[in-house]
Amino acid sequence: MCWPPMSSGPPDAPRQVRARARALLRRILPRTLAARTALFLLLALMAVQAAGLTIHALDRVDLQRAATEREMSARVFGLWRAMVLAVPERRGLVLSEIELPTGLDASLDDQPAVRVGMLPAPPPVLRMIRPEILLGGPPRLRPREIQAGMRFGTLYVSFRMPDGGQWLNVILHMPPLRPWHSETFLIAFLLMTAAAALLIVWATRRLTRPVRDLARAANALGRDVNAPPMPEEGPFEVATAAHAFNTMAERIRRFVGDRTQMLAAIGHDLRTPITRLKLRAEFMEDDEQRAKMLADLEEMEAMVNATLAFARDDAAAEPSVPLDLAALCRTVLDEAADARPHADAEDFAYAGPERLTVRGRPIALKRALANLVANAANYGGTARVVLSPPQGGQIHLRVEDDGPGIPEESQEAVFQPFRRLEASRNRETGGVGLGLPIARNILRAHGGDVTLRNRPEGGLCAEVTLPA
């Protein structure tokens, strides 16, 4: 017997709703910390201001209501007194001559204005006409009967005359209480909000400025390990963070310096035994073995020199200055073409603006471009540089060749030190697998990067980005 599978776990609908709500909130909220802080503070202040002004407006409404109650009760009492003291035949004439305030109407009728089905008048509303004053007067001035009701926000009160004849119907139109519809309320709210917004924006920008300074300092340290330290000033927390950042930067500089000195010492120590081995190999009688040993020793020496070049701190020691990137590209292409006298001029062509000024380290950038051009020339036979004008704060540069390209899964692996793809590259082309890693290190030190991709028409393209 088979049982139907039981459902496990709650439905995903609430989770999807929460995910959509978070995504919507991320789209609505500003991106910067200062803007978010200012927005939250402004919303909180607006809520507090609205509550305070509302309380003030309600208090004012209570005062106005009390004043209205006093005025209306006095008017109703005076109106009733005039009707009672007047001769029954002249009551209508007397009523027509009485000037009533806005919102108060009165008439003499044979029937009360209060009808069946009307809502009973609440005590707070009924207090506006103060019926206890009339009921507490002399017997000859007391109404024989009082009826009250409400309909659509209008108060109907009917007083039966002492003689038992007509009814004095008083109609009080009660305007709705709208404390927020006051012009004073709106103007005060807008002025207070505008003043608070200016103060909040100024304060949040000032409070978050250390965060922006820390981000700029970290970006500068990523480009230049010898970047100037952050000023250790301001509030205690800011000064502590700046001190910690400066300590970290000093440790990084010390680590880089120690690594460079260590590799330089290793390289110096390795050159001596390599030289001795070369001298001993020259005295070998077997020509074939001598040639193989000398080739291995030359390869070892090339690897030592390349390793020292890879670890050398040239980019950190060289100052950053304005330079013409277009002229630098043309110079690198000319030097690559001169090293290959049998190549065509079209094989080392430049396309782009005549002049494009950027800020960087000339020797380091030239070395990075030379490595990319040499890589294209060695393995693709050509090296064409395409430089694009700045767009979106970025400069894009392409180094293209007509070689076999690189498999897509290996295009990132070639940036690892000493990584060579034997399927498409061999030792005879020169190099030990450090040209691309050195180029990427230099470009990343400038705030840029380099990636590889195969061209649809064939060949490899090295795409370089640099900050404008």
Automatic annotation (TrEMBL):
Localisation: Cell inner membrane
Annotated ranges, domain HAMP: 205-257
Catalytic reaction equation(s): ATP + protein L-histidine = ADP + protein N-phospho-L-histidine
Keyword check for Nucleus: no
Chief localization: membrane
SUPFAM superfamilies on file: ATPase domain of HSP90 chaperone/DNA topoisomerase II/histidine kinase, Homodimeric domain of signal transducing histidine kinase
Domain named Histidine kinase: residues: 265-468
InterPro entries in alphabetical order: 2C_sensor_his_kinase, HAMP_dom, HATPase_C_sf, HATPase_dom, His_kinase_dom, HisK_dim/P_dom, HisK_dim/P_sf, Sig_transdc_His_kin-like_C
Keyword flag Iron: no
Membrane topology: Multi-pass membrane protein
First-tier enzyme category under EC: transferase
Cellular component GO terms, alphabetical: plasma membrane
Gene Ontology molecular function: any one: phosphorelay sensor kinase activity
UniProtKB keywords: ATP-binding, Cell inner membrane, Cell membrane, Kinase, Membrane, Nucleotide-binding, Phosphoprotein, Transferase, Transmembrane, Transmembrane helix, Two-component regulatory system
Transmembrane parts of this sequence: 185-204
EC number assigned by the record: 2.7.13.3
Domain of life from the UniProt record: Bacteria
Official protein name in the record: histidine kinase
Organism annotation: Muricoccus roseus
Lineage: Bacteria, Pseudomonadati, Pseudomonadota, Alphaproteobacteria, Acetobacterales
